Amino acid sequence: MIVRVERLNRKDKAHPRTANETNTMVKEEWTEKGYIDEPADNGTDLAAEIRKMCKEKDAIILAHYYTDGSVQQVADFIGDSLALARKAAKTDAKIIVMCGVHFMAETCKILCPEKLVLCPDLNAGCSLADSCRAEDLKKFKEEHPGYTVVSYVNEKIIFGPDHNLGSYINAVTGREMLLWNGGCHVHERFSPQAIVEMKKEHPDAIVLVHPECKGPVVKLADVVGSTAVLLDYAVAHPEKEYIVATEPGILFEMQRQCPDTVFMPVPPEVSEGSVGCSCNECEYMKMNTLLKVYNALKYEWPSVDVPADIAAEAVKPINRMLEMS
């Protein structure tokens, strides 16, 4: 089964309408931008107002580890994409504010069709998800009959969308899955040479690596795992110091749980002629800001909807994922 919900062209929705129960007219400029940029009153404590509205509106804020620390601080729950999906499926809240990327909000809506799901910025896409369009994967599957599609395990498997993660799974399991050639633009950029140099300066540091990184980076790791696995390892061994090769937003929670531990983010590779940078952030995750969360709750928009026929099919593999995990 292959299901992919494409983000709607915002111009197709750029017409005046009412934002849910707030009776606030959705402005055309909002739909053009994909988010609300109304200024808050001077002196507004955004974090306090966000928590107040959550209580008044029976809303829950779910935030990915890669979002900005200020957003994680106001969230009811933070986690990786799997943990966020689990939480969404179990919550009794009437409104879910998904601070992550667009497909995570779509997953919430598929799991909870009766709830209002808000995505603070509809522009928060995902390079990995966008690298695997439904029509392209459908054609790929048709070209390889007899395979079962497994997405992000049967004798003949097509694995997608992340090629690096699939390569890592093949290596540790001995399988020979057929891999879709997709990737995360953040994890693709980490520099193995930078890790080598950092280890020279910090020989006792533990190297934590996400399996969506390229093979040369994974080979330098002491611990390979999902964001949650890397966090759990650091919490269990707070006396260590760490070199971390995943999106640096996770350092906020790592440092919160291990205040005396040293965490060093791995920088990206620098192409010839370009200027180096010590950060390797996901610009999509960072589109979630306190002001956007505040406005999303205040006006109950942007909301995410998934066509019923697509949701009916998409919920099947999502539920299987949750059951297997």
Structure description:
The protein is an alpha/beta fold. The protein has helices spanning 28-33, 46-57, 69-74, 81-90, 102-111, 127-130, 134-142, 163-173, 192-201, 215-218, 227-236, 250-257, 290-299, 308-324; strands spanning 17-19, 24-26, 59-64, 77-79, 95-99, 116-118, 148-151, 157-160, 178-179, 206-209, 223-224, 241-245, 262-265. The strands form four sheets. The protein has a four-stranded parallel β-sheet, sandwiched between helices. Helix 5 (102-111) packs across helix 14. The radius of gyration is 20 Å and the shape is globular. It starts with 16 loop residues before the first strand and ends with a helix.
Q: How do the SSEs run, as a string of H and E?
A: EEHHEHEHEHEHHEEHEHEHEHEHEHH
Mean pLDDT: 90
Largest sheet report: 4 strands, parallel
Provide the structure class. alpha/beta
Q: Tell me the strand percentage band.
A: 5-15%
- Please report the total strand number as a whole number: 13
Number of helices: 14
Shape: globular
In summary, what is this structure?
This protein has helices spanning 28-33, 46-57, 69-74, 81-90, 102-111, 127-130, 134-142, 163-173, 192-201, 215-218, 227-236, 250-257, 290-299, 308-324; strands at 17-19, 24-26, 59-64, 77-79, 95-99, 116-118, 148-151, 157-160, 178-179, 206-209, 223-224, 241-245, 262-265. The chain is an alpha/beta fold and 325 residues long.
